[in-house]
Amino acid sequence: MQLLVNPNFDFMGKRNLALAVSGIATLIAIGSLIAHGGPRLSVDFTGGTFVEMRFDRPVEAAQLRAAMDGIGLAASEIQKVGDDNDYIFRFKAEDVAQKSQQYLESEIADPSGLIEYAVQKQLPEVKATMRRQETVGPKIGGELRNRATQAVVVALILMLVYIGFRFPGIAFAVCAVVALFHDVLLTLGVFSILNKEVSLTVLAALLTIAGYSINDTIVVYDRIREEMKARKREPLVQVVNRAVNLTLSRTMLTGLTTIFALFALFFVGGSVIHDFAFAMLIGVLWGTYSSVFVASALVVTWELVRQRRETSRASSKGQRAATVKTA
Amino acid sequence: MGGIARWKLILVIGVFALAAYYLWPTYQYYYRLTPEERRNAKELRGKIIHMGLDLQGGMHVVLEADLSQIPPDQAKDAIDRVVEILRNRVDQFGVSEPVIQKQGNDRIIVDLAGVQSESDVRELIGKTARLEFRLCASSTVASQVVDRLDRELVARGAVADSADTHPFSSKMAVAYQAQYGVPVGAFVRDADIPAVNALIEQAKQGGFAPVEADLFWESEERTIGENKGKVLHFVNKTVEMSGDMVASAERRFDLDYEQPNAPGVSMTFSNRGATRFAQITKANVGNHLAIVLDNVVRSAPVIREAIRGGRASITGSMNDQEALILATVLRAGALPVDVKIAEERTVGPSLGNDSVQASLKAGMWAIIATVAFMVVWYKGSGLLAVVAMFLQIVLLFAGLSALNGTLTVPGIAGIILTIGMAVDANVLIYERIREELRNKKTVRAAIDAGYTRAFVTIFDSNLTTLIAALVLFQYGTGPIRGFAVTLSIGLVANMLSAVLVTRMVFDFITSRRRLETLSI
Q: Using CA atoms in the order A104, A105, A106, A110, what is the torsion angle rounded to 10 degrees?
């Protein structure tokens, strides 16, 4: 089956519109991130306690909050997840330690034990079981934050170096990394707008998006490079358009099969991997878009500006030479 | 077999033979052995793919040792001892396949699979288990301590209400009179306990902590009259005897005469310990001897006569399970330094099981969608790409097995993602072949050109994704590393199966007959 036989869309003719769309989307993402004071980090990075509990019968978040208030343990969040009466709770680690000592006579913090205790006290007919529990001390949270930053920086530098090495001129490398930034930033932006948390798993998704975005961009760049060699006399816009059109069905196909896999993960992959799949979905959609409309479009704009500057410099030089002569 | 370079054939057969060799132990372990046999298959375990804690349920705990208590040159020894003692405790408690290892200078990682009660484990590994026998301070000393604390707290303006001249002693509801009339502590109502703790903390911070005695709470919750509360003990600073003189400890149910069947722990001292215990008890008849565990007084019985049997026991305020843990930690010995839980990730068995089911389901749907799509789109060649995809999955698992790797939830996500991305190489090649065919090339020439031209792109793009995966591996922890590993192996396997193997099949077909058309 073939849908796009010899497509010949004028992608580069619309590049200013595309760059404007990306620019606005990026501004919205940055705006949301600033408004929320940066991405909403999970306990992995901030330190704290996260518990997921399953209750054997329907309960309301308000009931659970009342139960926790009953023992004076403030939860910064109590939220239902999935369809099985699963709730997530978030606490400050020191609060949990103090209440564990007070109610469970335990020197060692036991968040799920406290929830069980509180629920049993207020809602005796409900039975609670722990699904998962994560406690991260502030020191380790800080370390994970540092390592995450390092990971992102190192990955970007390595990719920049590789593309700079594989493709002629600095334009390709810079534009590819700009496109990558665009994809990751917009994914972060969507998370920020939806007030979703960035956890270690989401960070892994962001780095994978970086890999996917570069991957997609390189396929198009490879073709641009090939066409540039083959058609030296044609104008750049035409060459890039041709390259993008030739790789178009591949871009769509791979995007589609990847999105199929991500849909499977998103809808039936389970709660643990849900946010990962969501981040990847957003990232792959933007990544597919950006390889054409950001990475390639930017290279065209960059090269055209450079050419214009060179010609104007050449002509002004010529003028100066002429003035010297007459003088 | 004309048309296929011999080296390629040997390479491919070799790789898959190796894959089968590496996969065999994993297959054996999970499909051939009973759970009982698995537990004993220590050697096999070094050669298989492990299930991550997030899949089988379990606890991942990072302990941080407080090295400030000991000289820096003893730090390394202390951590090694902590690891050894923790291993002893965990082994004795009967958790299978524990992983206990050092991380950095002051951290210890404890990974335990299939934990029944995570709070038990926290007790087991988080308890310092510093057992001390100390004499209770005399009533004179105790009242001195209280008076001085009152005076200092008032003098330093540490009290909110300036009229309160007895901030500390006013919280002591009753001087708790034990039998024989010797006061061994003060009863504090539950409501006042946080305030008393705060005052003691203030004294420590302000540098006027009691020098005559230590103030320790008793573990038991007591009721006096209408009030519930706890006893605050005044205990001599001198440690008469410590836990290293305990030779063995066991849980018993016959230790408390007043409460038959109540769980407790009976300790037997070493020879040296028994002698020392006899000396202490002989010299202090009539005094109270406090059994202090991790700065909590477990009991403070009066000494009636010299005790020569070399035994002591701890009873009260514990359930069966706690008694078992206490006996275990006393046997394995005290940790040389305090540890605290710096990070804990626990997955309950129900979630682990759900994750396995959900991952299988997601994987199945991803495969169905990809197979359907490829076959509809590329027909015969699409089927070949699908075969390559399955081979890639086989190679991926073989690679994991060879690395003795661990399959985690993000790791499975990595595999499913690779299923989607696996066909990318074939899509690139096939699109190129179609293009060449449209340019009126022969089938053979089109295949040739398609592979050659697409290869550069495939190599470039796989390498950049590999960079991202390697960075993730370098900076990631636990499950994330699992993801990086599956992604990396997937990419390498992709080059092999999607590029090399499919090419061989095309070469084989085209070498046997002249194809006029290609099913693509």
A: 20
